[in-house]
Amino acid sequence: MPTPSMEDYIEQIFILIESKGYARVSDIAEALSVHPSSVTKMVQKLDKDDYLVYEKYRGLVLTPKGKKIGKRLVDRHHLLEQFLKIIGVDEENIYKDVEGIEHHLSWNSIDRIGDLVQYFQANPSRVQALNKLQLENDDE
Ligand SMILES: [Mn+2]
């Protein structure tokens, strides 16, 4: 299993390749606000662990294993954003909070949160009932 830091890299590399078609060390460094030398070091580790193939002058490509986990990490991020939104968390807190919790939940918890999101989405009156309760609590 990748560490939280490795997950951040794989997730960003996946997003970059999806959106631009490639992921350069400088782009990864910018996206994660880290020094390019840290990126090079991590990319070498990810290569060694078979998540990607890195060639200094040709860039990097995700292996099937890297792609599979990358997609899973991006989906997880998206699910947690939906979850926080549904439970009424303010928009400005959502991204940072997801970045803070996403690596620290078991896939078991992620799957159950997925059920909950599905439960709410299947019936908007449930979301309205929750919002009503929140307004009442805010009044106290
Ligand atoms: Mn994320």
TrEMBL record:
Xref: NCBIfam families: PRK03902.1
Keywords, comma-separated and alphabetical: Activator, Cytoplasm, DNA-binding, Manganese, Metal-binding, Repressor, Transcription, Transcription regulation
Quaternary organization: Homodimer.
Domain (HTH dtxR-type): residue spans on this chain: 1-63
UniProt: Mn(2+) 1 binding residues: 8, 99, 102-103
GO molecular function terms attached to this record: DNA binding; DNA-binding transcription factor activity; manganese ion binding; protein dimerization activity
GO cellular component: cytoplasm
Compartment(s) of residence: Cytoplasm
Positions that bind Mn(2+) 2: 11, 77, 99, 102
Biological source species: Heyndrickxia ginsengihumi
Biological-process GO terms, alphabetical: intracellular manganese ion homeostasis
Family matches, as PANTHER family: IRON (METAL) DEPENDENT REPRESSOR, DTXR FAMILY, TRANSCRIPTIONAL REGULATOR MNTR
Protein name per its UniProtKB record: HTH-type transcriptional regulator MntR
Family to which this protein belongs: Belongs to the DtxR/MntR family.
Record function comment: Central regulator of manganese homeostasis.
